[in-house]
Amino acid sequence: MAITPADIQAQTFSEAKRGYDPAEVDVFLEQLASEVDAMLNKIVDLKTRLTATEQELAAAQAQAQVAVAAPAPAPAPVASPEYTATASQISAALIAAQQSADNIVAEARENADRIRNVARIITETYRRGHNVVAVLSAQGDTTDDLIAKAAEINPHASKREMDMLLATGEQISISLLAMAIERMGFPVISLLGWQAGFNTNAVYGAARIKNIKPNRLQAELAKRNIVVVAGFQGLNRYDDLTTLGRGGSDTSAVAIAAALNADKCQIFTDVEGVYTADPRKVRNTRKLDEITFDEMLELASLGAQVLNNRSVELAKKYNVELEVLSSLNPVPGTVVKEVVKDVEGMLIKGVAKDTDVAVITILNVPDEPGTSFKIFGLLAQKNINVDIILQSTGRDGKKDISFTCAEGEAELAMRVLKESAHFNDVSVDTTCAKVSIVGAGMQSHSGVASKMFEALSNNNINIKMISTSEIKISCIIDRADADKAVGAIHDMLFD
Asked: How is 322-333 classified by DSSP, letter by letter?
């Protein structure tokens, strides 16, 4: 059944206790009406073009018939398949437009449900007598959608303007949530990052927090207001908006908890806690009741997407106890803290993968003092983070150096090495992934690395590079084998 803007605007919902929030739903419906109206206008345009195409086809066929009846040589026939193909494309576009409209309605209702659920969690905590500061990220794929829209306008937009754009995602989230809480009868106020006191450096797109001035937060809490803060953003010394990079909302939440000396910082996600591997891809995973800061920091740095590594680093620095919980299911989560009671005696706390990996190799590097400093000093100046480094023993006064970095930084790293460091024999491999195991218990137990390598060997997975520390072992392998490797290692260590 086709849906029209009028249908959306006229839509009503029955209310029940803790049911739909009319104000919140109205906002979504207005947005939906606008989107559907635009789609319907496009459909009208497509129908007009289809009619014109059909008329052109009829005229071409008539001309062809006249030409055949005339004694003069017939002109080359008009290729009707072109018109048929165009008509088919338009028909497909009409169907896609209607499907898109239906998807918009469904997505809006799902988002409304999520907002109401978050509002319920916050207000229940408030009812128990706690002061509550809620830090929000953008909804769903909002950030990715904004990046895509920017690319349509300017694929090479400056990072400053990108920050101005991306910061709007969190602003939408906090205003809608504040409306939902307001509708439920609770005192609430929403604040942008700079209003909450976030001061950052001037690195657009990946700013770091310099300090937080919590005066406004403290004043609102003193009024017994629920404070809803836009994560992921702050203000630099030029009064420009900045963003903290992916996962920045987690970092914002921990920073506020530290500034306010909060009892606990709860991180609500789409999973029920920290697992020994991604439960969506690996069978028989276990949810951890507790995990240390160091272990969680390693897992986050190595590709586990439950928590942002900067947030864990900040929590460890200021000893802010974290709890990872599900925003959908009210079940106990995972506590992240300095010291845990390892009752089960688990050697390994998790297996992680990171596919955002590039391996850069420099051949025939002069085997002399200062060379490594020259290479990695130049990379550091460009804010390129290097992970695993492998250096050959050297031969004929030369050596080879390989290192890993994020795939998105590989092009810049290559340019720095060739233009600034003046190395000619440099190559990059962007088909790699990193699989890792993490656990404080492995430092006092032998054979852990052997089991990891055995799992990879049994599945015919080649190891290109190896890195170890007291609590982790990482291997660089082919990206195509990453999921298989994680599953095999998990089965070997946990079954």
From this structure: EEEEESSS----
Q: Could you tell me the two tokens for 461?
A: 């997975």
The predicted-structure confidence for 185-198, as pLDDT tens digits, reads as follows 999 999 999 999 99
Asked whether the domain spanning 350-494 has the same topology as the one spanning 116-337, the reply is no
Instruction: Locate 121 and state its tokens.
Output: 């969690």
Number of neighbouring beta carbons within 10 Å of residue 70 = 9
pLDDT one-digit tens code per residue, 235-272:
999 999 999 988 899 999 999 999 999 988 999 888 88
Write a three-state SS string for 466-484.
EEECCCEEEEEEEHHHHHH
Identify the pLDDT of residue 115: 86
Name the DSSP letter for residue 442: G
Q: Are 343 and 327 in contact (CB under 8 A)?
A: no
Q: Helix (H, G, I), strand (E, B), or coil: what is residue 291?
A: strand
Helix (H) or strand (E) holding 430: strand 426-438
Q: Which of 141, 121, 140 is nearest to 132 (CA)?
A: 121
- In sequence order, the 6+-apart residues with CB closer than 8 A to the CB of 36 are 3, 4, 5, 8, 101, 104
**How many of the other CB atoms lie within 10 Å of CB of 209?**
22
Distance separating alpha carbons of residues 243 and 235, to the nearest angstrom: 9
The angle subtended at Cα 408 by Cα 405 and Cα 409, nearest 5°, is: 50
Give the strand pairing for 226-230 and 133-136. parallel
**Residues 298 and 309 sit within 8 Å (Cβ to Cβ):** no
Domain 116-337 belongs in CATH node 3.40.1160.10 = yes
Distances (CA, A) of 418 to 197, 371, 424: 42, 14, 6
So where are the chain's domains? Answer: 5-113, 116-337, 350-494
The share of the chain scoring above pLDDT 90, in percent, equals 55
State which CATH number among 3.30.2130.10, 3.40.50.300, 3.90.470.10, 3.40.50.1980 fits the domain covering 350-494.
3.30.2130.10
Helix-helix angle 159-183:80-127, to 10 degrees = 60
> What's the confidence (pLDDT) of residue 43?
72
Rounded CA gap, 167 and 158, in Å? Answer: 14
The percent of the chain in helix, strand and coil, each rounded to the nearest 5, is 45, 20, 30
Query: Which token pair is 396?
Result: 């004929």
